[in-house]
Amino acid sequence: MLNIFIRRVMLSIPILLGVTVIIFLLMTVLPGDPATALVGEDATPASIARVRADLGLDDPLPVRYVNWLGDTLSGDLGYSPYRRRDVTDLITQAWTNTAILAGFSALFGLVGGVALGFVAGIKRGKAADKVISVFSLTGLSIPSFFLAIVMLIIFSAKLGWLPSSGTGLDDGTFFQHLIMPMVAGSLTTLAITTRVTRAAIIETYGADFVQTLRAKGLGNTEIFRHVFKNAISPVLTTSGLQVGYLLGGAVLIETIFRWPGMGMLVFNAISSRDLLVVQGATLVIALTFVLINLVVDLVQATIDPRLRRVVA
Amino acid sequence: MTTITTATPLGNDLPLLTVEDHRAAWAAQDVGVDAKSFWAETTRRFLRNRMGVFALAVLLLLVAAAVFAPLLTSYDPLVGNAQDRLKGVFSDGHIFGTDEQGRDMFARILYGGRLSLLAAFVPTVVATVVGTLIGTWAGFVRGVVGNGLMRAMDMLYAFPAILLAIAVGASLGPGLKNTIIAVSIVFIPPVARVAESAARTVSMQEYMEAARLSGANRWTLLRTQLLPNVLNQIIVYSSGLVGVSMIIAASLSFLGLGSQPPAPEWGYMLNAMRGSIYVAPLVVVIPGIFIFVVSVAFNMASDALRESMDSRSGG
Amino acid sequence: MSPDEPIPSRRRVRRPGRTSPGRSRAWRLFAVLIALGLIAAACGGSSGDSSSEGGSADTGGEAEGGTGGTLRIAMSAGNVPWPSTPPNEGYEGYRFVGNNIYDGLTRLNLDQTEELPTPQPSLAESWEVNADQTEWTFTLRQGVTFHDGTPFNADAVIFQFDRNKTPEFEFFDKINSARYNATFRYFKTWEKVDDYTVKFTMTQPYAWTLYDLLTVYFPSPTVVRAVGNDNYNPSAVGTGPFKMTKYVDGEVMELTRNDEYWGTKAKLDKIVLYPQAEAASRLAALQSGEVEWAEVPSPDAVPQLEAEGFQVMMGQHPGAIMPRFNEHRAPFKDNVKLRQALNYALDREGTNALMNNVGEPASQYVYEGHPDYVEDNPGYSYDLDKAKQLLAESGFEPGQLNLKMVYTTGGSGNMFPGPMMEKLQADFKAIGVNVNIVPVEWNTLITIGLEGLDKPQNADIDILWASPAAGMIPPGYNVTFLCDRPGPQPNAAGLCDPVINENYLAAMQAATPEESHEYVRKMMTAALDNAHFLFWMQDKNLRVLAPSVQGYHHAQSWWVDFTTISVDG
What we know:
The structure holds three protein chains of three kinds. Chain A is mainly α. Chain A is built from 14 helices and two strands. Chain A is 77% helix and 1% strand. By secondary structure, chain B is mainly α. Chain B contains twelve helices and no strands. Chain B has helices at 21-31, 35-48, 50-67, 69-72, 105-141, 143-157, 161-172, 176-203, 206-213, 218-254, 266-272, 281-309. Chains in contact: A-B, A-C, B-C.
């Protein structure tokens, strides 16, 4: 198991490096000059030149990338002149906010999705299945930002039931603040999990071993338990991806509900040409994604030894 | 490495249809070389699937409405009258009301369908073609080249789609053309993954071994044996991407990176009018409804297609 | 000023009321439908998650026992402006953060709405200037201390000038000094005469020193020395009417009344600033009672907000949309008729109607009533015949011109670019001029303005969107109107008109403000007659306040005096 783990971690490294190279290249072709974006329209050419030199923008691209990589490997993500803060600091703050929202969204989406998918799966073709299928199709087809705005206007502006923005973490109103971003943000996760679970349950139900179990005279509850255990693998895989993506932040939800997480951090940094923040945040997002999926794969391998070979 | 063989959803904002590949893969194995009768059978099944046929009919209707827009409305989608702005639905002469510039919404929805459907289709088609080629090749040759290709895909994949689309969109600048390019790029890695995993499975089959032993040329093998069988899964998967494509385009619009005026496009219309939601909520919601309907219809059609391909699902 | 004095442009409504019953019922129905869906979802996912509360957002009133209450503000900025000198996030940063935490040597009289605010004594009690206006001597106010107790004196002034003008100085701030370039442009030397007297020598005879000093804020030298420039923001300390008591970058800033303030103390106990770039969210926050003040709501929401009893503020405001022609090259270079033709083709009333009339058609660069407004010059009306005729005289056939216009998709002070540009495109099309409109991000637009339209990467742009703070302070005309920019570089749009140059330079050195305005008006006449701009819309600075906000003045400025404001408990 440890070998598998180490091997997988080693394999992730080139992927993470590749991600940062891609983002670095994308950032350098953005229109608009980073130094100008920093100092604004009143600056003189001389002072812009000074800032450019200070930001290291005059160095050739490969040199800039290697410098960044060197600093990063020594644990220093740099200083953002656009925010006048350490990048590590910025990312920690945003990542914490994102992790809180992502955690609850994942819980809501995954638990809800598994439950709905399970019901739909065992009631295949019945009314319950149809209702749930329509519901999950709907969840996949609504732009989340639009649902967010509609919810905002109804529940906050019109009815005044829920606060419109902020995290409420510092004044004990966290749960009121959580509801709307969590629901809007987890809609996709909920829908996808429902579909995957349903498919997996149907798949397992049709499998030979269920017939065998039945023939052996096992009760329904027992069969459920076996079916569930065998169906869990694709659900886990999806969960890993979903949690990984939720932890990457959801820029639209974060903007609408003023929940300043990774999505907003990266989006604002792209707009202000804040290269170091984009690079650092990208790295953290990709790292989170890879790690979560690694953990999920290992969990799967633990549950089902047959998968070990595949995971490795 | 990240051994995720099931086709997978993109980022949180960007739902992707999940496809139970393995089932489709079995279907492909069952059929083996005989792709022609497989497709005939699939078509037959699809036509008997009421949901699928209904979804397809809705889509065809929308495409026809977009194509024949000039015959269906006499209003110019680009010309409005400030005095007539934000009229409600079913108001005089404007069944969908008018937008914030006083233009007829029905005309804008019809003409807007052209761009929106295009923006939904083009990235899907581009990503399907490119992704299939990359994935199939990687799954077929495997080794260093194949692995290298797939690791490159993983790099794009380990990043939430909306952020990737934003980065690409910001580099290219706002506009529908660039949205299409950005979404295409975002779609390639997942398609390649599906293709690679399918190609890997198929190329390990006995009939492939047999063909190889009989001295078939590698290229011929790829073209005549592998590709047709991989395509089944790709098509199921890609049909689900069309709806996602619409939603990403609308999301980019929200951030100011999407389609630009004056050409009507549903995502742009939805965003341009969100400030008017207090005055004319029903009118503002209309473009959203169309995005929703197209997305649902594609997802339904895609579901039906998958069921039709699955020889064991009966029917 | 009494808080109850009538403010001309303030549309006030009797009592806080709800929407009409019919509409409200429809909303409730809609809500129930959505709620059903949500309940279905929640039932499915019942276990272990967050649905344990049922509280409402209506926390409404303030717990604090203070007299002036707490004012919570939803800004349109994407982030909390940093409390540096100068702040960022454009004029929103100066409005909410800069002017509250800091004082300048001068300050605008923003507590009145009748006239364009002018600089008044602030940290400087009085000043003297020599005959040719090259030497300005300021007597500083005594007994002023920074929020950390450090005394304010001539050393603090010199410290800040060194910090921005002397690259060798230990605490020279590369980033902020670059952002301060325009403000400090005309200062040549600065010296301490005694503890409460400083003397500035200007680079040339200069009449607008008092305007430049408005935004030269003074941070506590003790703090800068202790934490350095890079870590200054979290510990920002000034002398202003409010102290920064909480600052979470990206989330919130809290300002608390400075009870030791040297001047008129503020009424408010606290100001809380939230960044919220999304207009729909700002409005929801206002309506649900989470904030008392929302910047730039959607114009279409205005009637409803008024009906609900909110105070909708609009008025004459030195902000405008004045796109610039590329006069570096054809077709606009030396083609007055073409520039005039496009000005006659603009349907300004129609554009305004699209925005629910929250702007005003611009007949000139500044609004009517502004001291730089030229009386008896009607400017350009909407006149298609004239436009077509001038187009023909300019040497172009209808359909012959295909122009490229670049505009921004957002940014504070830009009104509503999307609908405006769609309208402009249709207006020009009506006389046979095609415009390809190209949106760019706000940062990109600023970069283009800085690089200039003569640079190869921008040379294909014919018209450039511009949203100047038109006429807020006279030095503001500088880079837009003059032939040369510091550097030296040519005018970004290629505008170079000897009459404009001559009069602006005379205005800069005029002996009295009246004389100065007279020269500027001559400059404006030349700009208008030669159609150097696309005179389009005046912004009326739309803003909504809760009924509980008292003592607000919608000054003719981008800034606001917060010391007169209070919030009813």
